[in-house]
Amino acid sequence: MFDWITGLLQGGGAWAIAALMLLENVFPPIPSELIMPLAGFNAAQGGTPLWLAVLAGGAGSTAGAWLWYALGRAYGAQRLHQLVARRGRWLTMTPSELTRAQGWFARHGGAAVFFGRFLPTIRTLISVPAGLARMPMARFLVYTAAGSFIWSGGLALAGWLLQARYHDVSDWLNPASTAVVVAIVAVYLWRVIRWRPEA
To answer: Which superkingdom does the taxonomy of this entry point to (predicted)?
Structure first.
């Protein structure tokens, strides 16, 4: 995957960065922890300028998040409650837990959207409850863009500064991001097994 992404970034420039970051938010297996440091590394080698790489990465990430937000907004909270009532085990949630979660998101939605941009898998999923809660689109985009540009910029800058040592850092980043995803899957399976319907 490393060589494939490198080839795309070198051949497609800013458009490839934006497309990969959009895809990372729609279909998470291509991690931003690999895309953006590589974009920064390529910038240091004379490829797409760093500022343009950050702009493309943040824009692509924001666009991908908006797609999930739009999906959640179109689906609606009422239909979600009906789905939870029928398929609660596989969603690992009961109707009362969903109501509490909606209350929590109503109180902390902005912070959840912003800080969620820094976490693997969560940065994809956090857009759905924002849409379900019908968070105003402008507010959602502000929090999402702020988190996305900070995250993209930090990763790209790391790749640019490290240059020749980028491979050493990628050897650490890849397992760390994989470990977070594995932990999320493990928690999900544990909740499926432990789930009990409400009396």
So the answer is: Bacteria
Asked if residues 54 and 42 have their Cβ atoms less than 8 Å apart, the reply is no
Residue 143 lies inside a defined structural domain of this protein: yes
d(C-alpha 21, C-alpha 35), whole Å: 7
| Cα–Cα separations (whole angstroms), residue 89 to 64, 71, 83, 178, 185 | 28, 22, 11, 25, 15
Split into its structural domains, the chain has a count of 1
- Is position 152 within any domain? yes
* Range(s) of the domain holding residue 61: 2-71+101-174
Q: Residue 31: which of 47, 20, 43, 42 has the closest Cα? A: 20
Residue 87 lies in a domain: no
Q: What is the pLDDT of residues 107-136, one digit of tens each?
A: 888 998 999 888 877 777 788 888 888 899
R_g over Cα of the chain: 18
179 lies in some domain: no
Dump pLDDT digits (tens) for 157-179: 988 888 766 666 666 666 666 67
Instruction: Give DSSP secondary structure letters for 87-153.
Output: HHHHHT--HHHHHHHHHHHHHHHHHHHHHHTTSTTHHHHTHHHHHHTT--HHHHHHHHHHHHHHHHH
